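#structure-requests
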Amino acid sequence: MSSSKTPEPEGLETEEVDEPQELEKLESEVKEMSEKILQYRASLPDKLKDTLVSLLAAQRPILPEGSEPGTSGDPNPDAGQVTSNIPADEDQETIEKIRLLKDKISSNASSMPVVLKRMRESGAYSEAMLQIVERRNDQPDILILEF
């Protein structure tokens, strides 16, 4: 039981020497990453805002001349004549598309009560069918139809 050290394999000594160097390398990488994260946090909101603004601007519909934002969408009689860079047939096309869209929206909104009624009826029908199935499972020889 002597306290003499057993010789260590040669590979362990080089690993101990490499550990501080590797640790320094990892610390420098972490520092670089944290700097990049700070840079992204500072610049990303502005980039997102700019991208969103440009997307919304690209999707903004072209309204007929003389109209102002509002619920009616009717031309504003107080607006002066403004010359447009859009050719007349394209302008008419846009006006027609807007009119068709308004008609479709109006039609869909007016058919909502009918759709809701049908949904309620189909829900009631489904519940009745479930009750029939449950009763049939309880009494396999008898089929009861109730609506």
